[in-house]
From TrEMBL:
One Pfam short name: Ferrochelatase
Binding site for Fe(2+): 188, 276
Taxonomic superkingdom: Bacteria
Example of a GO MF term: lyase activity
Pathway terms, separated by semicolons: Porphyrin-containing compound metabolism; protoheme biosynthesis
EC number in record: 4.99.1.9
Gene3D superfamilies hit by this protein: 3.40.50.1400
Family: Belongs to the ferrochelatase family.
Residues annotated to bind Fe-coproporphyrin III: 55, 124
Organism encoding this protein: Actinomycetospora endophytica
Keyword Metal-binding: yes
Protein name stated in the entry: Coproporphyrin III ferrochelatase
Enzyme class: lyase
Length: 358
């Protein structure tokens, strides 16, 4: 923890290309050092070109930041909000250097993921450490570079749950048979081995899938649906490596086979309608559903709801003024670390780098 008062907020996200010639270099950044086959990359490149080489993610994050600035002002917090990414401009390295030059000493980091796990949490701690190291190298003085404390997981925050639930309610209204529609929650699949090591070792793993499951349960409860499904999407990596299943496309096919005609799909695993949502669900899955004769309504993700922005302010208040964390679930929670230290020792070990167990 820093001894300086909190003097800024950094919104840290995944990043996405904003022009056709940025797509390939962006993808190379995403998969650097990972086991993603080139054919998969070619396929994903096409998803981005489907939208003119432009991911909506940066624009959506800029809108989120503008709303957060207004909400912080309204709550009486005089904190500038910065924007940095893992995989594309504005890179976190450049933003943290700029923060140092602006005299920021102690910032809170809101990472755009609700969950634990290597991809959803630990990698953001790594981004923070890398960005600070770059700024220290460029400025030649560690004392100039701000301390950065990542805010906690928020998958069970009542305002997150309420935002996702409202999306489900609105989607249901667009279907004639909406109230009988099958409710399906979806989140990004990860390798089974990564889920096994998600969370601190003493917790026994599976923090990511347990938190996603809990978020789905809480949202279903809020909209009064007892019977729902929670599945996975956007699998990559070689087919012989197991990832969390079922995939949503297989699941919708199975539902159609059972005679289901109406489906509401809620992307509870994501905070905004970026390419994973706009292509994998709104384009590909919607087309498949149409061919199967299934009417599909995609629920909005949480990030577009004003209560989501109020939630970010509450997470900030937890750190600035010791406000009591609000949570409506019973699952494991973590996410907080300063300057890239992990939530707990050995938390969310990436499987590929795990030491041999002999
Ligand atoms: C858990 C999780 C989240 C949710 C948490 C969070 O939001 O942070 C997430 C979000 C996102 N994933 C995104 C895009 C991509 N993810 C990829 C690849 C991968 N994702 C993984 C996991 C996750 N991903 C994993 C285990 C891989 C395999 C390679 C690796 O281990 O890294 C690839 C490479 C090609 C492919 O394999 O599909 C792309 C292009 C975008 C941006 C979309 C846009 O540009 O609008 C966003 C928000
Ligand atoms: Fe991803």
């Amino acid at each position: 923890m820093s001894t300086n008062p909190v003097d800024a907020v950094l919104v840290l996200s995944f990043g996405g290309p904003e022009a056709p010639d940025e797509v390939r270099p962006f993808l190379e950044n995403v998969v650097r050092g990972r086991n993603v086959p080139p054919e998969r990359l070619d396929e994903v490149e096409e998803h981005y070109h489907h939208f003119g080489g432009m991911s909506p993610i940066n624009g959506l994050n800029r809108e989120m930041i503008a709303a957060l600035r207004r909400e912080l002002d309204a709550a009486g917090y005089d904190l500038p909000v910065y924007f940095g990414n893992r995989n594309w401009h504005p890179f976190a390295e450049d933003t943290v250097t700029e923060m140092a030059q602006d005299g920021v000493r102690n910032a809170l980091v809101f990472a755009t993921s609700a969950y634990g796990g290597y991809s959803a949490c630990r990698q953001y701690h790594e981004d923070i450490a890398r960005a600070r190291a770059a700024a220290i190298e460029r400025l030649g003085d560690e004392a100039l570079v701000p301390d950065l404390t990542k805010l906690r997981h928020f998958y069970d925050h009542p305002l997150f749950v309420a935002s996702v639930a409202d999306g489900v309610r609105a989607a249901r209204e667009t279907l004639d048979e909406g109230h009988d529609a099958r409710l399906v929650f979806t989140a990004h699949s990860i390798p089974v081995s990564a889920d096994e090591t998600a969370g601190p070792p003493e917790e026994g793993g599976h923090r990511y899938s347990r938190q996603v499951g809990e978020a789905a349960r809480l949202v279903a409860g809020e909209v009064g649906v007892g019977d729902y499904d929670q599945v996975w999407q956007s699998r990559s990596g070689p087919p012989q490596i197991p990832w969390l299943d079922p995939q949503i496309e297989d699941h919708v096919e199975a539902l159609a086979g059972k005679g289901v005609t109406d489906v509401v799909v809620s992307p509870v695993g994501f905070v905004s309608d970026h390419v994973e949502v706009a292509f994998d669900l709104d384009t590909e899955l919607a087309e498949q559903a149409g061919e199967l004769g299934v009417r599909m309504a995609r629920a909005a993700s949480a990030g577009s709801d004003p209560r989501f922005i109020r939630m970010i302010v509450e997470l900030i208040a937890e750190q600035v003024s010791g406000a009591e964390p609000r949570a409506c679930g019973t699952g494991p929670r973590g996410g907080v670390g300063c300057n890239g230290t992990l939530c707990a020792p050995g938390c969310c070990e990436p499987p590929a780098r795990r030491r041999p167990s002999t």
